[in-house]
């Protein structure tokens, strides 16, 4: 698998091999005690700017295969900014600039030969608000495989697989030609997850996927995440700490530090560890203050 554009030559394409060493460099070195082995993605000294504004500072993270990693922290600490930099969605934001590296199976996704569209095929995204296309349920799912030129011999099977994968098939199998807008909010979000998995990504980024949903729809998405991680690597931004503790294997806690002169608040990673450790034995007092509700 490669994220290079089709013009890349074979010798420019890096192998997709597991790296077995734990990655414990950078600012969070002593805190990332249990970084995953053979990470699918890593950030190294990741800094993101919006124009002159320094939004996130030196983020070092590694995301384990078939794990769910939660990004948590108070509003404005840069969680979504970090998430969007993982599949180059920030390219679409005018004035956004990314420094440092983001690697996917060892390849720098910001490398000069890398095609951002290909990156997003491997690293899909589900947004906060369900955003189905104004099309039928069927066409919402078939759209991705069609436009990405996936070789499909049986589109009906692709649609069914994706809807089953998103735990939506039984609810919609008799109305596949109906408009997606006729579904409930929770069903629409599962449709968006089905749409994402239809193009067979490796990593799924989720930006507060349950924040617009009621508790029952939220529980269904959380169950779904646990099922999906057997096939995919999932990285989720959530404000809901119970959700992070319920679904994730590892948690990264961010905060924002005000600049002494400008007062601008720059996000930074405070602590990254197994979720159980973050919630039961946080190493940093700022993490403890946040998870116990004394800050943020
Ligand atoms: N498109 C943008 N242009 C300019 N500044 C932005 C942009 N997007 C985010 N920011 C700023 O970057 C900082 C981090 O924002 P971001 O949305 O990543 O934080 P967050 O932790 O996800 O916040 P929240 O939890 O409120 O969604 C904030 O100060 C925000 O105002």
From TrEMBL:
SMART domains in alphabetical order: AAA
Database matches in Pfam families: ABC_tran
Keyword Oxidoreductase attached: no
Gene Ontology CC annotation, any one: membrane
Recorded name of the encoding gene: pstB_2
GO biological process, one term: phosphate ion transmembrane transport
Highest taxon of source: Bacteria
Record keyword Transport present: yes
InterPro entries: AAA+_ATPase, ABC_transporter-like_ATP-bd, ABC_transporter-like_CS, P-loop_NTPase, PstB-like
PROSITE patterns, per the entry: ABC_TRANSPORTER_1, ABC_TRANSPORTER_2
CDD domains: ABC_PstB_phosphate_transporter
Location of the ABC transporter domain: 41-281
GO molecular function annotations of the record: ATP binding; ATP hydrolysis activity; phosphate transmembrane transporter activity
Keywords: ATP-binding, Nucleotide-binding, Translocase, Transport
Source species taxonomy: Bacteria, Bacillati, Actinomycetota, Actinomycetes, Propionibacteriales
Protein name: Phosphate import ATP-binding protein PstB
């Amino acid at each position: 698998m490669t994220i290079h554009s089709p013009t890349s030559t074979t010798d420019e394409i890096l192998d997709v091999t597991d790296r077995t060493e734990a990655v414990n460099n950078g600012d969070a070195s002593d805190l990332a005690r249990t970084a995953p082995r053979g990470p699918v993605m890593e950030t190294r000294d990741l800094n993101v700017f919006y124009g002159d504004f320094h939004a996130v500072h030196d983020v070092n993270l590694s995301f384990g295969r078939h794990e769910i990693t939660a990004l948590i922290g108070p509003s404005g600490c840069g969680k979504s900014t970090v998430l969007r930099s993982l599949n180059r969605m920030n390219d679409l934001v005018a004035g956004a600039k990314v420094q440092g590296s983001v690697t996917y199976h060892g390849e720098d996704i910001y490398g000069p030969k890398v095609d951002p569209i290909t990156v997003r095929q491997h690293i899909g995204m589900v947004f906060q608000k369900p955003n189905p296309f104004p099309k039928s349920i069927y066409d919402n799912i078939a759209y991705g495989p069609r436009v990405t030129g996936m070789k499909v011999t049986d589109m009906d099977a692709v649609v069914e697989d994706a809807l089953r994968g998103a735990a939506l098939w039984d609810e919609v199998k008799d109305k596949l030609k109906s408009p997606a807008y006729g579904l409930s909010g929770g069903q629409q979000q599962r449709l968006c997850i089905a749409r994402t998995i239809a193009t067979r990504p490796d990593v799924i980024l989720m930006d507060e996927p349950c924040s617009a949903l009621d508790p029952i729809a939220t529980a269904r998405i959380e169950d779904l995440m646990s099922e999906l991680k057997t096939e995919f690597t999932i990285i989720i931004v959530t404000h809901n700490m119970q959700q992070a503790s319920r679904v994730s294997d590892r948690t990264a806690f961010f905060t924002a530090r005000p600049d002494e002169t400008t007062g601008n608040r720059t996000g930074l990673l405070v602590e990254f560890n197994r979720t159980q450790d973050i919630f039961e034995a946080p190493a940093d007092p700022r993490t403890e203050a946040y998870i116990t509700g004394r800050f943020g």
